[in-house]
Design a protein that fits this description.
heterodimer, A: about 80 residues, mainly alpha, disordered C terminus, B: about 400 residues, 7 helices
Chain lengths: ~80, ~400
């Protein structure tokens, strides 16, 4: 499997599957976010994928991000990040 | 499991393969996709019929790159397929750049991916249970594939159990029994009134057993509910039916492992059926770390299969597969469950897919899909005595309510 590396790719991945705002995926613009949002998104992905939720983009996390998968977002419907029901 | 929030209103669904994969035999693809649909129809009353033309519920296409929905495929590996939830049409798209395979470990197994995508088409989101078909990551070809209990519970939360026993040859499979409707009193066949319950329709706890029975606990006694009220021959002593279990239980639920958990004060008990399942009682603080003592109620919620505990003005979510099982964001205000009062007596995830909350002599029906109390006529809260306990002389609405006798639901 190809190695999935780099914070940019991870950011795109997390946005694609619902862990970060979709605006992060816009390739024509740069994006900056506070560290806590970034770590929270990684931790949520790790938790969903059954990894230790460290909030660190470690090797195991990037490896899981490289796995073939379904294109449907992980966080839809009853996601906890909803601002309003 | 996780429910997206929409489902099909009909159970007889049609599908069409509008664009076949470029490298597979069409008849074999037909066969594999029919098998993938049957994964879900084996456990529900859903049926899936393939059509060659005309309008269908679910359209299936194998496409490369951009294919008109703004979500382009990315070539071999990465994203394999995606599907739309019922509210968005239910269509399923597969990346034709993948090396799709049938009955083979080589390439990407079509059956495995299709069964997963059709779960989305039916209303299931991704599950965080790793063994579930609805987990988001491709797990390869499995010649002995069986739907995970997590997936079964998810699909049955949406469409109910299978009522026909054409899977009866496989022992132990759930779903053979018809889902009971809401127990309610009828004017045609009133149940015998139970003086202890009808006189004071407040109880300690209500729960479903693993075999589908619904039980009410009150003090030292219990009752079994029927479609119309309570079964004859009750009340009976809790201590006789569940040896070792005390009276005045605070809360109870049956988990997806088939075990029933009872809570009282700072202790809990686990039963397999009506037999104690080990050395109990144990401390809630040990077995359910993060959950307080002296609970009001507990249930397993159909929205996500997780355990919810209620006490006073707060609730806690418990997920035994996570560490810690209770997130730091809990407890949360009970007002998040829109329309439900504080200080409930009991709660139940019933077999019809609704969640019920009980307080005093009243109950509220909570719609797990709209996430609010249903606005029916008669309005909620309604009388527990009339609608659950078969007390035909009780008012249909809540005590003091204005529901009329002609207000059939």
């Amino acid at each position: 499997a190809p190695t999935f590396g780099g914070a940019d790719k991870a950011m795109m991945y997390l946005a694609q599957y619902g862990y970060l705002s979709p605006s992060v995926r816009n390739p024509s613009s740069g994006h900056i976010m506070d560290e806590s949002s970034w770590r929270r998104a990684i931790a949520e992905f790790q938790s969903f994928a059954g990894l230790n939720a460290t909030g660190e983009l470690d090797e195991e996390t990037t490896k899981v991000m490289s796995l073939p998968r379904c294109g449907v977002r992980d966080k839809v419907g009853f996601g906890e990040s909803r601002a309003k029901r | 499991y996780a429910l997206q929030g929409s489902r099909w209103r009909v159970k007889n669904l049609t599908y069409k393969i509008s664009k076949y994969p470029s490298k597979l035999n069409r008849a074999e693809v037909d066969n594999e996709l029919a098998k993938a649909f049957s994964v879900w129809s084996d456990y529900t009353d859903l049926t899936f019929t393939q059509k060659r033309s005309g309008q269908v519920h679910i359209e299936i296409r194998f496409e490369k790159g951009e294919h008109g929905d703004g979500d382009p495929f990315d070539g071999p590996g990465g994203t394999l397929a995606h599907a739309y939830f019922p509210v968005y049409g239910g269509d399923a798209h597969f990346d034709d750049a993948e090396m799709w395979s049938i009955n083979s470990r080589r390439g990407t197994n079509l059956f495995q991916v299709a069964a997963h995508e059709f779960g989305h088409s039916l209303g299931l989101s991704h599950s965080d249970v790793r063994s579930a078909l609805m987990a988001p990551f491709y797990r390869g070809y499995d010649p002995a594939f069986q739907l995970d209990q997590d997936d079964i519970q998810g699909i049955q939360a949406l469409y109910g159990h299978k009522t026909q026993t054409d899977i009866g040859g496989l022992p132990g499979l759930p779903g053979a029994a018809a889902p009971p409707s809401v127990p309610r009193a009828t004017t045609q066949q009133p149940s015998a009134e139970d003086p202890a319950l009808c006189g004071d329709p407040k109880f300690d706890t209500i729960f479903n057993s693993a075999d589908g029975g619904t039980f009410i606990f009150k003090g030292e006694h219990y009752w079994r509910l029927t479609e119309d009220g309570v079964a004859s021959g009750y009340p009976r002593l809790i201590a006789r039916a569940w040896p070792g279990l005390p009276g005045n239980i605070d809360a109870a639920f049956t988990y997806k492992n088939g075990k029933t958990y009872f809570f009282k004060g700072s202790k809990y008990w686990r039963y397999n059926g009506q037999k104690m399942d080990g050395d109990y009682p144990k401390d809630i603080s040990e077995g359910f770390t993060g959950i307080p003592d002296n609970l009001d109620a507990a249930l397993v919620w159909s929205g996500n299969g997780k355990i919810y505990f209620y006490k006073g003005t707060k609730f806690w979510r418990f997920d035994p597969s996570q560490r810690p099982p209770v997130k730091a964001t809990y407890p949360k205000p009970l007002s998040n469950w829109e329309g439900i009062p504080d200080g409930i007596d009991a709660a139940l995830q019933y077999t019809n897919g609704y969640t019920y909350f009980f307080k005093g002599g009243s109950y509220w029906r909570f719609n797990d899909r709209t996430f609010s109390v249903d606005s029916d006529n008669p309005a909620f809260p309604r009388s527990t005595a009339f609608w659950w306990l078969g007390c035909s002389s009780a008012p249909r609405g809540t005590v003091g309510g204005n529901a009329r006798l002609s207000d059939a639901p």
